[in-house]
């Protein structure tokens, strides 16, 4: 059974960076976000990142570890930005950003 931290989140004593490199997101060959890019494409993965950031920000004050959840939200926003920066042509095609490249 996993150890509970602060009564709200599970500890990972082998990897203390639960924001940037959570162990439960890494299994097999690929990190989950990389699998999502391969399976769902950049648009849907971008949307997921934005929505997940929203979820973390909106719930942060009520979960007991506001700072960590805000860091997680920021991390998802960084991933969304990275997806956008790496896929600008594809994102223009689906109309996420107005204007052409």
Describe this structure in words.
By secondary structure, the chain is mainly α. It has helices spanning 32-63, 66-86, 88-94; strands at residues 4-5, 9-10. It has a domain at 27-94. A two-stranded antiparallel ribbon has the order 1-2. The N and C termini lie far apart (51 Å).
Key words describing this protein structure:
two-stranded antiparallel sheet, 3 helices, 4% strand, disordered N terminus, 101 residues, 59% helix
Placed side by side, the strands forming the largest sheet appear as 1-2
Number of strands: 2
Query: Over all CA atoms, what is the radius of gyration?
Result: 16 Å
Structural class: mainly alpha
Shape: globular
- Enumerate the spans where pLDDT stays under 50 for 5 or more consecutive residues: 1-13, 96-101
């Amino acid at each position: 059974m996993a150890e509970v931290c602060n009564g709200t989140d599970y500890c990972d004593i082998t990897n203390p960076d639960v924001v940037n490199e959570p162990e439960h997101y890494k299994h097999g060959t690929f990190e989950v976000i990389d699998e999502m890019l391969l399976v769902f494409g950049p648009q849907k993965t971008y949307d997921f990142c934005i929505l997940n950031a929203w979820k973390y920000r909106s719930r942060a004050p009520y979960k007991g570890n506001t700072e960590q959840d805000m860091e997680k939200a920021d991390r998802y926003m960084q991933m969304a930005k990275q997806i956008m920066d790496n896929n600008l042509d594809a994102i223009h095609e689906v109309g996420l950003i107005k204007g052409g490249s």
